[in-house]
Amino acid sequence: MTDLPAAAPGSTPLVIRDATVADVAAGSLTENQTLVLAEGLIQDIGSAPDLPSDAREVSAGGRIVIPGLIDAHVHVLAGTADLFRQAEESPFYVGARGSQIMRSMLRRGFTTVRDVGGADHGVSRAVAEGLWEGPRVVFGGRALSPTGGHGDGRAPSRFASDDTCCDIGLVCDGEAEVRRAARHQLRTGAHHVKIMLSGGVASPTDRVDSLQFSDSEITAVVEEAEAANRYVAGHAYTARAVNRGLRLGVRSIEHGNLIDDESVELFRAHSAFLVPTLVTYDRLKAEGAAAGLPPASQEKIDVVLEAGLRALERAWRGGVDVVFGTDLLGAMHPHQCAEFRIRGEVMPARDVLLSATETAARLLNAEGRLGVLAPGAAADLLVVDGDPLQDPGVLADPDRHLRAVVQAGRLVTSSLP
User: Fold this and answer.
1) Sign of torsion, CA 256 114 247 217?
2) In Å, how far are 27, 230, 291, 402, 406 from 42, measured between CA atoms?
3) Which residues, if any, are the signal sequence (predicted)?
4) Which of 68, 126, 139, 377 is most deeply packed, by most CB within 10 A?
């Protein structure tokens, strides 16, 4: 069981009356419920629970209450799409900009995020201590990349060696180096270790269809993560890269736009998770140049854009555990909720919501504590107009439908009486 990252709890109990409570897994709604929240947890849910005498009370007005959302693929410090240039910025400036990115994520309803490159224990701690307003942060530190891989930001003409050549990556080669790098991330409290299994869009010198790291290097990282009761997340696009990672023990595949039928079988056989990030390709194509994405990266987008939705449908129909992710960078962060609408093109609304709640919580080893509305779970919840179990557009348009955000029992934002 992974330690649950904290969020600053509310100082007084909160009672939400006249709520229609969603059971996302069952796809059902229960009307006329009262939720009692205290000490950061859901204390009780029922038609007539005992109420603390000092509680603040609000009415949901019959609206639907759902668990707080989880985005399992973010970069909260990515203030630009040119991550390698950002490495030259002051870390204080990067952090200040990241705090604003996180605040906006929380106000869109994301009460927990998994950062897969860049955020560290300090970011998570800032939220836990109430220094920054944002989602609770499950972090992995720097993603591990081989020389010339997806985390190596050097241009082809640059030969100087710099192991930490961007904010999100750490370059390491050979079994000994990758073991040391994995142990370093775990030493800082990382909840997972991310590795690059294939090329990517944002890196300047690798092909999207390349394989990265050897079998022995990947196995070394998996062994180190499992020894620490953590897991490995693998960036991969092609079926060849995905399937190799799954066979070697990688627990979550990030992106996976080019998976095949064998991939689906391997996901199920290894109880692994797929984290598609479809909105990022849509927005990179539309806004990447303006957001700072280098021309070499812009040319790669079409390779993965068209296949992404087909891969999601293939995985969902094949019974793969699909988790919500977005992977947005820079000025594209505000489009985070558009991922709900995109997924709704090939998945039922309930399954889309499940990917951002209970299924995501299982990936985070936080089942029963995140992504559900039940006594003892974190008091993270949203009050919405409309039914997200029937219409993914409800979550895709928070400005219109999101009426309240509660995190750890604290009313973050509300238009409720």
Assistant:
1) positive
2) 20, 27, 40, 20, 11
3) none
4) 68
Chain centroid offset of residue 235 CA: 13
Domains in the chain, please, with CATH?
14-68+369-414 (2.30.40.10), 69-336 (3.20.20.140)
Give the DSSP per-residue string, 63-85.
-EEEEPEEEEEE-TT--SS-HHH
pLDDT tens digits along 364-376: 999 999 999 999 9
Tell which residue, 262, 263, 261, has the closest CA to residue 253.
263
Put residue 307 in one of left, alpha, beta given phi > 0 → left and psi -120 to 50 → alpha: alpha
| pTM of the shown model | 0.93
Q: Are 191 and 230 in contact (CB under 8 A)?
A: yes
CB 68 within 8 A of CB 382: yes
Q: Could you give the angle at the alpha carbon of 204 between the alpha carbons of 252 and 233, nearest 5°? A: 10
pLDDT on residue 40: 97
Question: What is the pLDDT at residue 54?
Answer: 93
Rounded CA gap, 191 and 228, in Å? 9
Is pLDDT above 90 for 159?
no
Q: Please, which residues bridge with residue 45 across strands?
A: 35
**β-strand pairing of 28-38 with 41-46:** antiparallel
Q: Is 346 left (phi over 0), alpha (psi -120 to 50) or beta?
A: alpha
Number of H helices, E strands in the chain: 15, 18
- For residue 86, the surrounding DSSP H or E stretch is helix 83-86
Report the distance separating Cα 312 and Cα 380, nearest Å: 27
Q: Alpha-carbon distance 200 to 360, whole Å?
A: 23
DSSP track, 391-402: -THHHH-HHHHE
Q: Are 143 and 169 in contact (CB under 8 A)?
A: yes
DSSP string, 228-288: TT--EEEEEEEHHHHHHHHHTT--EEEEEEE--HHHHHHHHHTT-EEE--HHHHHHHHHHH
Q: Tell me: the pLDDT tens digits for 306-359?
A: 789 999 999 999 999 999 999 998 889 999 999 999 999 999 999 999 999 999
**Biggest alpha carbon distance in the chain?**
69
Residue 204: both structure tokens together: 């300047």
Q: Could you tell me what percentage of the chain is helix, strand and coil, using 3-state DSSP and rounding each to the nearest 5? A: 35, 25, 40
Are the beta carbons of 70 and 371 closer than 8 angstroms?
yes
Residue 204 has pLDDT above 70, yes or no: no
